[in-house]
Every structure is written in C-alpha cells, then in structure tokens.
Design a protein that fits this description.
The chain is of the alpha/beta class. It is built from eight helices and twelve strands.
Length: 264
C-alpha cells in the first residue's frame, strides 16, 4: 500500500527532481505531512541507517530502496559516491528522495549533497525534519532552554572529519548553556575530560538518550565526571546523543508527567 496523501498538493515531486527529506528521530508520527507525501511519490529512496523501520514502512512499495547509511568509521558508501548516486538516479528521470534521520541540514550532510545537485543542474528541495536533539529532548522531558536553567543551547558533533583536530571545548563551558553532542558516544569519556579541563563543572548533569522517540528509548542520567563510566557500565549503543547542562535536573520530574500522558 502506498503512503497516503493527507491532502492534494499543487507541487508534486517531478521526474528528475530530488527531495532531501528529514525523517525525524524515529517515531513515524513525527514526520511532516510533506515528508509523508514525498515518500508516497518517490521512485527511489536513498536512506541512512538512522532512518527507522517504521518510517521506511511508509515508502511507496513500488519504489527502489537503497541503504547508503553510515556511522562513525563504518560507511556503506563514501559521501562522494552517495552524491554521485543521487545525481545518477535523477538524471535517469526518476523522482528521488534522499531520506535522512533527523534534519538534513543538522549534521546530516544535506548541504554537501545540495551543493552537488546544484553543480549538476538538478532541481532539488529540502524538507526539514524534527532533529534528533529536539526529538530526544522532548521525549525525555528535558527542555533545552529554560529561563531558570539555560539561556542558550549549542549543537556540536563529537565526531570530527578525519585528520582534523579536536573540537575547541572552551566555548561550551558556561553553566547557563545546554550542550547537545551528536555522534559523541565513542568519545564520551574524552569529551567529559576535555569539558572539565576547559572549565565545565564535574557535577554538571548529563543525560544519555538512546533510541530516542522509539519503543526502545532509554534515558540514563549521570554527572559529567562519570559520563564515560556510565556509557560503559550500561553498554549504551548508537543511536544515542548527550545532553549536558542544568536542564537535565528537570528530567525526572517532567518525565513522570510525560509517562502519565502515555499511560492514558
């Protein structure tokens, strides 16, 4: 069965065009209406490993599905090959959806792919998705900003391009800032050490959110000083992200309220 079109739309995806679509953090109910429509129109979908099975189940059954996923140090295809594959499929006159976990423009390499398509003269659109950070924070009951706890939030990646130096952590040591770290699980202990060396308090609360917004979601809370040990002790696996800051202290109280709503 094809994914349903919620309502008619005057601008369908045309043959030879590409749609960079954000699949959100995992829960298919968090897809935008436009993203759902594009999944139903696609002739070919190139998707990442972080796209959930529940979202893939909404793809047009006649569409070719190609996994081009990658995680740190483990790539199905190099990025340049993914770029070329998107171009090739569009040049064949197909309606192409490039489906990415979270949002295409937030650590999703959507900008690199859009540059490639622009250079090839291929029409493309970008459909934003709920980012992993936004989805994880909402599902765990952690407001990323709060007048009493955090006046700002930063999103960083713990995984650097090969050959590049480590991230400059001194810009993320303010007690009134929330720090969200993508792809930082394998470097959790080093990230904690570097933040403390740069001046962040050892007692800063941290939430580790695994499989956010799915039935397998798990939330672990600890202090910055024990972050590496917590990841190891509980055998946390990707996908997971880290939320660091005083807002994490609200998690236990607010999560109970969310659980009541889910229980009906």
């Amino acid at each position: 069965m094809n994914a349903p079109a919620p309502f008619p739309h005057p601008y369908p995806l045309r043959h030879g065009q590409v749609s960079l679509v954000g699949a959100g953090p995992g829960d298919p109910d968090l897809l935008t209406l436009k993203a759902l429509r594009r999944l139903g129109e696609a002739d070919v979908v190139l998707y990442d490993l972080l796209v959930s099975d529940a979202v893939l189940a909404l793809v047009n059954r006649r569409a070719e599905q190609i996994c081009v996923g990658k995680r740190a140090s483990r790539h199905t295809l190099p990025q340049q090959d993914i770029n070329q594959l998107i171009v090739t499929k569009a040049q064949q006159g197909l309606r192409v959806v490039r489906l990415k976990g979270g949002d295409p423009f937030l650590f999703g390499r959507g900008g690199e792919e859009l540059e490639t398509l622009a250079a090839a003269g291929i029409a493309c659109e970008v459909i934003p998705g709920i980012s992993a950070a936004m989805g994880a924070a909402a599902a765990a009951g952690i407001p990323l900003t709060h007048r009493d706890y955090a006046q700002g939030v930063s999103f960083v990646t713990g995984h650097r391009r090969e050959g590049q130096s480590v991230l400059e952590w001194t810009g993320h040591t303010g007690a009134e800032e929330t720090l969200v770290v993508y792809m930082g699980l394998g470097e959790a202990a080093n990230i904690a050490d570097q933040l403390q060396a740069a001046g962040r308090a050892a007692a800063t609360p941290v939430a580790i959110i695994e499989n956010a917004t799915t039935a397998q979601q798990r939330v672990l809370c600890c202090e910055l000083a024990s972050l590496g040990a917590c990841v190891q002790q509980h055998a946390v696996k990707p996908p997971a992200l880290l939320i660091i800051g005083e807002v994490v202290r609200l998690q236990a109280r607010l999560q109970a309220t969310l659980a009541q709503a889910l229980a009906g």
